[in-house]
Structures are given as C-alpha cells and as structure tokens.
Write a structure and sequence with these properties.
Rossmann fold; pyruvate-formate lyase- activating enzyme; binds cobalamin; binds iron/sulfur cluster
Length: 474
Amino acid sequence: MKILLIEPARYRSDGSVDKTRVGFTPANTLPCLAALVPPRDQVEICIDMLQEIDYASGPDLVGITGYTKSIARAYDIADEFRRRGAYVVMGGIHVSMEPEEALAHADTVIVGEAEETWPRFIEDLRAGAPQKTYKGLPRPSMAGWPVPRYDLIDKKLYYTSRGGPLLSRIIPLPTYSIETSRGCPHNCSFCSVTPFLGAGYRVRPVPEVIAEIKALGARGCSFADNNLFGDPARAKELLRALIPLKVVWAGNATMDCADDEELLELAERSGCRSITVGMEALCDETLSEFNKSFNRTDQYRRQLAAFSRHGISVLASMVFQPGTGSPGQFRRVYEFLTSAKVPYTAWWALTPLPGTRTYRELLEKGLLRRPRWWLYKPGAYPDYKMSGPDLTDEEFFRGYMKYYKKFYSLPSILRRLPSHWKKAWWAEFLWNLPIMFIAHLRRDAINLYSPLGQERGFMALFLDRFRRKGKPAA
Ligand code: B12
Ligand code: SF4
C-alpha cells in the first residue's frame, strides 16, 4: 500500500494557508506513526506548512493528523483526497474529542493513542474490513516503541536538523522532538491533556529513551512531554542517564519543580537549557479558577531565581481571560516579568479547546459565539464574548499587544538580561534579539492565538527573513 501521512497547516484569518520556508523542530506525530507502518507498505510524510500537497500522487491511504487550530484545513485536505478516491483516516487530539464531526470527512477515525490501533487498522484495511472508529486502549503501555522515522522528512525543511558541520559546532544540531512520558498529574481547566490522555502520568522506560536519542544521533532534544518532571523520582533517573550523552535539551514542567534543588542540579548537569512553565496568572483567585492552585504566586520570584541559578532559561506561559480583569492587567504582568528578569514569555488569550472544562463552561453560559468555532477561519479575537464589566474587546487587544511588545523591547531586554547572577544571560540576550525583531516587525506573527507564531518557532520566523509565503485557501 502507498500511504501518505499529512500534518496540516492552519488557515490564517485572511483565508490563506499558513506556509513558511523553514520550520524549527519537526513534530514527532507523523515520524512515530510512520515507524509503526508494516515494512511491506510504502510511507511518505508531507508537512503542509512547508511543502505543497501533491493531490495527484495517488496514495491508497491518506492519514491526517491535526490540532484544533489546524482542523479546518485538515478537513479540506481530507475532502479533496476522498473526492479523488483515496481512503482517508484521521487521528490526533481534535478528532479524538470530536469523532462524529471528523467522520463527515474521513472514512475512519482513530480515537486516542494509536500505537496499537494504527497497525491493526492497516491490517483491517488490507483485508478489506476496516472499521469506522477505533478506540485506543485507556492508559496504554509506553514500552517497546520503534525509533520515529525522522528520516522520511527532508532535512532541508527544518532549521534544527540541517545546519551543516560548521553551524552544528556552535549550536546543538540536529535537534529532535522526543517523548519520554504522557499525561500530567494535574487537570487544569483549559488544558486538553488530561481529557485526552486520561488522569495520571505514564513513562517510557529510561533505557529506551536513551537508545532513541542515540539512534537518532540527536545533539539537542526538545522533549514533547507535557510535564517532564511529573514524577520527580523517575525524572531524576532520566536526567542521570542523560548526563553522559552530553546533549542539550528543552522541555515543559510546572513551577513547583524549582523547589527541588536536586532536580534542578541534575537538569543543569544533563544539559537543560530551557523550561517552559505554565505560570498563567499572578492572581491566586484566577489560578484557582483554572484548577491550578498548585502554582504559588508568593513563591514565583524565588522559583524563577532558582531556575536562573542553574542556567535554566524559563519561558513563562501566561493566560489572559478576555472579559474579566481590568485594562491594567497587562501592565502588571509585564512589570512583574521584567522585574523578575524572566528571559522569555508567551501570552495567550484563553482558548476554549474541545473536551475541556473551559469549553463546557463557556458553552453552558451561552458565551460561545459559534460552538464549533474551529470550523471557521480565525478572527482577530477569540470566538467567545469577551466584553466584561471593566474591559472591552478593543482594550483587551490593545493592552495585550502593547505590553507584549514592550516585554520584547530593547529597554526591557536590557533590564531583564545582563545580570551577573544569571548564568545564561548572554545566551538569553542573543535569543531575545530575534524575538524583538519579530515582535516589532512581523505584525502577522503575533496574535491572541499564537504569540510569536508559536507553531513555527520564533527562530524559524526570523530565518524566514520577514517574508510571508501564503497562498489562497483551496
Ligand atoms: C510538544 C507540543 C507542542 C510543540 C510542538 C513541537 C514539535 N515540533 O513537536 C509546540 C510548542 C510547537 C506546540 C505548539 C502548539 N500547541 Co502544543 N503541544 C505539545 C504537546 C505537549 C505534545 C505533542 C506531542 O508531540 N505529542 C506526541 C505525539 C506522538 O502525540 P499525538 O500528536 O497526540 O499523536 C498520537 C495520537 O494522537 C495519534 N494520532 C495523532 N495524529 C494521528 C493521525 C493518524 C492518521 C492516526 C492514525 C493517529 C494519530 O497517534 C499518535 C500516537 O499515539 C501537546 C500535549 C499532548 N500530549 O498532546 C500539546 C498540545 C497538542 N498543544 C496544544 C496547542 C493548543 C498548541 C498550539 C495551538 C498553541 C498555540 N496557540 O499556538 C500550537 C500549535 C502547533 C501547530 N502545529 O499548529 C494543545 C492542542 C489542543 C487541541 N485540541 O488542539 C495540546 C494538547 C496542549 C494543551 N494545552 O491542551 N505544541
Ligand atoms: S500542568 Fe500543564 S500539562 Fe498539566 S494539566 Fe495543567 S496545563 Fe495541562
């Protein structure tokens, strides 16, 4: 069988497909699925954001993934391939939350994790008896995975896997996205991780993670875990095993990991350069609304300083809830982050993702303008009523843009970064400069859904030399 796996791009608000010339780090979804395809089948990967889709290539089976953000584009691709006679299967987080919706566009929908169902479906299809829906096992084992087929992705498409010998002496190339665990011990109201992967935290055997890094020849790892330190004892085992590999890495964790000095020390020794943390808000009441009271605002400064002492650059993720709060909230967040010398931040307008408590609450309160907002092209604002007693839509947008840009302005960078007690200050300084250029010159790159064009990576945007390469929607 000839199998084509597609990662769809998203539509921009003008209806064009969000294309770019170079990506940052390849996502691991399609390489993982490709590795599970039986050797007798031929498999190809197409990254819509970076490549043209060849609808005439005549695949027997088209597999499409998709986040909520790219699902409208994913459905259009699926419809076109079906019109041309291909069998279309869809999987991933969005269709797992909305399988009925997806069945209007796909012949088969795979719900949940697919390590077991995807190979089973291929054999059913070969035997001429595919089912309409396959449901992954709840909390499946993460042992025995094959090495992801990154070799199927053209190296030239990704900044972090091409480099060349000279560049790779200066920065850790190649870098791959690697998963070591799934799930999260928490259940924040806006996050779809626990609704999708189930409660609890599952891990891959450490020797298998290490073997994968070695097999890929990775010098940099971008860990795709939601919470790399979800189980501190196991995290320490992983970090100890990483030390001899001399890789550098970035990952996601919660703020409270900064309270564990041994963990931070091992993170530093194992090559940790950056951790993204969900700080979300500076107000305990908002954090409690988000079911995130494990974040302690009174500890933030101390925790941020602990990361810094270990040379770990924090990317603080902040969420703003339109309609609530006052116009002054953006200034307060900006001032806190600047005075606490936070190196990077990403700001989000709260997004009602399907399957989350946030989504259900907005729906029940009648606040969603269009319940299936993801089927429409994105507008300037989130698709729910944002106006509140003290804040209009316009004030929200203006305040958000003004202070977000201010954070990535030269005065703020100079105030935040050069500091003798910050081990990584010079690297942070160098990385802040391209972000500053993007924040101020690439107006299309920053919006309420995607600060700094998150899905491409800010460095890729920078290398894109400020040129947009869009094409009208099909
Ligand atoms: C790492 C990560 C990122 C990285 C990706 C880096 C990279 N290059 O890999 C970065 C930081 C760039 C990122 C960006 C974004 N992310 Co993100 N991210 C994640 C995270 C933590 C892990 C994703 C991952 O790699 N998983 C491992 C792979 C193997 O799992 P998987 O894709 O789910 O695939 C499995 C199954 O779903 C299934 N499957 C998937 N597709 C298909 C297709 C077929 C045909 C089949 C058969 C099976 C199948 O099989 C796979 C094996 O079991 C997830 C949380 C999570 N655990 O899902 C959030 C998550 C996916 N991200 C999320 C969001 C919202 C975003 C952004 C939209 C944020 C933004 N506003 O910009 C962007 C959009 C990115 C884009 N491309 O459009 C949400 C998505 C929610 C939703 N309903 O869409 C998640 C779930 C987190 C959350 N808070 O809820 N993200
Ligand atoms: S801690 Fe992070 S990954 Fe875990 S539920 Fe909350 S937002 Fe999601």
